[in-house]
Description:
By secondary structure, the protein is of the alpha/beta class. The chain has helices at 56-63, 87-96, 112-121, 134-144, 157-165, 207-217, 244-255, 267-274, 290-300, 314-323, 338-344, and strands at residues 17-19, 22-23, 49-50, 68-71, 78-79, 82-83, 100-105, 131-133, 150-154, 170-171, 194-199, 223-226, 260-261, 283-287, 303-307, 331-333. Strands 3-16-15-14-4-7-8 form a 7-stranded parallel β-sheet, with helices on both faces. Strand 15 (303-307), helix 10 (314-323) and strand 16 form a beta-alpha-beta unit.
Amino acid sequence: MECSHDDIDLTFLKLTFVRPFQYLRVHCSGKAKTPVLKTSKKMFKSAIFNLQEASKDQVKEFLNSFDTVLSDCDGVLWINNNAIPGSAEAMNFFRNLGKKIFYVTNNSTKTRSEFALKAQQLGFIAEPEDILSTAYLVAHYLRGIGFRKKVYLVGSSGIGDELKAVGIRHIGIGPDPVKQDFKSMTTSELDPEVGAVVVGFDEHVSYPKFMKAASYLANEECLFVATNTDERFPKSSSIIIPGTGTLVRAVETCSERKALVLGKPNDYVRKFLESFGLDPARTLMIGDRCNTDIEFGVRCGFQTLLVKTGVTNDKDVERMRIERRSPVPDVVLPKLGDIINLASS
């Protein structure tokens, strides 16, 4: 019997790489099947190819070239609480073609169940087990290493609820008001049971939180984990919303330590996904930014599709074509929903 999603954290750290596109599927018993070499090739490797310019046969070949679809959420499928036109139809279309679907998000503000509910309300077919969020990754990373202490969390309730679900205690959620004499903070205000600092997105970030995080991390045995380092959220207006990377860099600076980052494009999320037995050469990663989504796909050997509905815009894509600085996507579309028209034309 293969591992369930909840068992993965105890097994995927044991995955063994044989060579690119050849890997072992690990089972709950710890036994592995015979490695199978996969030799599928990408159609448009690092071509920044506008899929709208593809022939009907090329579109058909592209759709037949992958079995698994990994999609970022914010900026690809929706912005805030609004679905990007055509995105739900496209993801459901992939599912109807028999593709395995995963929603892979660096957003740590919700639990998997909350993300699934949001997706369903916006028209996507989705269940909690289809969601891979950084809040979930944090909880299962800590459970997987046998963490038993308390977490100081610079983050939101999404991480807190996922920690609670695996029996890990935490403190720090919510406002920590700046007092007039904030520099007078003493060690008596620190919880001696804290053994890890986790940094995710926190709308209540404050100077006292940075002080506490850095003070806990002064102990070298205290773990330092971050959900992701995205610079900003995809925007629907001219207002810039700083992302989690802003907070992670601040804590790294004042603590003089580097965080273990679990989200895209880092190795932990890759190993987690490989525990499902994905064939990298037949997996498509869809994203709206190159330094997380496309970088992640390139590192994993996935095919990559960049859409221009989030962080990356037309000017960015033209700059990519000229400069050719890695990572660059295999194919590009203005929006994910365009795949429906291409497939039906």
